[in-house]
């Protein structure tokens, strides 16, 4: 069934919002003071992001493709798998969805933002940073992480077995994200998605959060550009070898 562009954009909007609620919601649960999950650990965050991708793909994969990531949309367009005239509307829907999802996280954890006096912990619930404060490492981690994510997701969703059983493919994509956060997430978070980093960082800058510190805009281009580069390469590898 072919859906209207409006319906596809609604799917991208709500799908990206759900990604943020599950993903950055899990970070807030771990990092902010006096939550039920305070210091629950990295696996809690990895699980949150894995489910945060799995559920939108299950819900909206048949509607819009469930890109929920501007890097995925751009990469598919560059490699001839997606129409260019839908790229900008998709990205706008994804950015707005990411903003909504992050704002919901802020609202639900509002008392804990007030209780938390560690600016790094607060920032972590919004966007990524490099643990070693090295911009090159930041770029490489986000690029290679997104490359693996996009290559793996396309292999699952577009190979014959995935097209035959899209629900199973969506579940595997969720596990890919879960595995990436546990394996390659140490240096940066990770983001792997320009919308997931840019819009929450913007909200971090404008929301009245005590003790929030700087939004680190000087490095904000990295989790936008690096995932796009990695996604284009990952999509190209899929097209060359399996497409």
Morphology call: globular
- The computed structural class is mainly alpha
CATH architecture label: Up-down Bundle
Query: What is the total number of structural domains?
Result: 1
DSSP strand tally: 0
Q: What is the CATH class?
A: Mainly Alpha
Topology order in helix (H) and strand (E) letters = HHHHHHHHHHH
**Sheet bearing the most strands, described?**
none
Residues in helix, %? over 70%
Which stretches of 5+ consecutive residues score pLDDT under 50? none
Separate helix tally: 11
Determine the strand fraction and express it as a percent band: under 5%
Q: Supply the CATH superfamily name.
A: Glycerol uptake facilitator protein
Q: Output mean pLDDT.
A: 97
Cα(first) to Cα(last) distance is 22 Å
Could you say what the CATH topology is called? Answer: Glycerol uptake facilitator protein
Give the radius of gyration. 17 Å
InterPro entries: Aquaporin-like (IPR023271), MIP (IPR000425), MIP/Aquaporin (IPR050363), MIP_CS (IPR022357)
Protein name: MIP family channel protein
GO molecular function, one term: glycerol channel activity
Family: Belongs to the MIP/aquaporin (TC 1.A.8) family.
